[in-house]
Amino acid sequence: MKIEASGLGKKFIREWIFRKLDASFETGIPTAITGPNGSGKSTLIQLLSGFKLPTEGEVTFSKNGKAITVEEIFSYMDIATPYMELIEEFTLKEFLDFHFKFKQLKAGFSLQTFLEKVYLADNQNKQIKHFSSGMKQRLKLGLAFFSTSDICFLDEPTSNLDQKGTDWYLENVQACIDSKVLIICSNQPHEYDFCPNKLYIPDFKQ
């Protein structure tokens, strides 16, 4: 799987967030997007995932040399961000039954295996609105880690996680490297130290 950004720029009202950004992302080579607060890291993820359109330039997607349209790309990706909302009125079981109508668990996983991997097996009948922030974050990350999707976007992935949760994140995110295009938006080096590619947003401002 491959994502390519060419001449990418985003403008809000009269202010350019970034311009003329060229970058390539592919399976097996995880990338960290870094930069000061307000530099456009989260905005770039939204452009790369097709949730927002660029002001200039383009983003293209391909798998095994075959182009994928922006309208189709959602079915190839998972995303975990602080601003991603869960359906909190659902119980965990209801939410997962709904989610996996559109996504597929990775080979060898059952729903019970998933619940055990995210340490939520005893909470499947609890409404998500009653989960702690750490439980919600493990759920979001687990949905990204343990699916068959080809692309995984993570924004501030250890937000709300304690040290045990952070260790869990590091173990499972690195297990995804060979099977996904992995893009991590962060200013915390411990979240992305293993990434060979690092994209620093202010370098592209003009």
From TrEMBL:
InterPro entries: AAA+_ATPase, ABC_transporter-like_ATP-bd, ABC_transporter-like_CS, ABC_Transporter_VariousFunc, P-loop_NTPase. Coiled coil: none annotated. PROSITE patterns: ABC_TRANSPORTER_1, ABC_TRANSPORTER_2. The keyword Methyltransferase does not apply. GO terms for molecular function: ATP binding; ATP hydrolysis activity. Keywords: ATP-binding, Nucleotide-binding, Transport. Residues 3-204 form the ABC transporter domain. PANTHER family: ABC TRANSPORTER ATP-BINDING PROTEIN ALBC-RELATED (PTHR42939). This is ABC-type multidrug transport system, ATPase component. The lineage of its organism: Bacteria, Pseudomonadati, Bacteroidota, Cytophagia, Cytophagales.
